Amino acid sequence: MLEIGEGESRALPWVEERPREDPGPIEQARAFKALMERNGWSGNQAAKALGVAQPTVVRALALLDLPAPIQEWVEQGDLSPGTAYEIGKIQDAGIQGELADRVVSEGLSRAEAVEAVRAAARKAPSTVGKGRGAGRPGKVSTARTLKAAGCKITVENRKGVDDARLVAALREALDRLATRDDRAA
Question: What is the average pLDDT across 110-133?
Fold first, then answer.
């Protein structure tokens, strides 16, 4: 007989409801977040327990960082979750709103939206470096340092560290630690 842990048993009602209901992308992201917080799971652990790909969880959670009007467009189906995720790569909420409005009003395809995001990133100095090879070769051009629980965590990236990239890097680091701890146990 297959035994399941307490965390998996908490996830089962959500998994069982999936075939009967089709939760919207924002609702699904909130459910992922709630399960992760309730169980102390990383994104990778949630993905495994729910039987979904880890990038699915990461991309869903990134939607929760978007401004409320953009989340509403996603929930209403006016803006695809994938396009919203791309828009979320821009740090500035104002630019995010402008891009989302343009995608919705002009009916841009995902490819067109991705290109609009890239164009906006090139114009917004807070989201990218100044061209290929900015700074000295091999040197970090951007770093973000966080202090929590008596620890100092620094995320460095030559292309800049926006919030989505920071969250993804921290989740990946947590997943690696969890995997290492699982192997040690």
Answer: 70
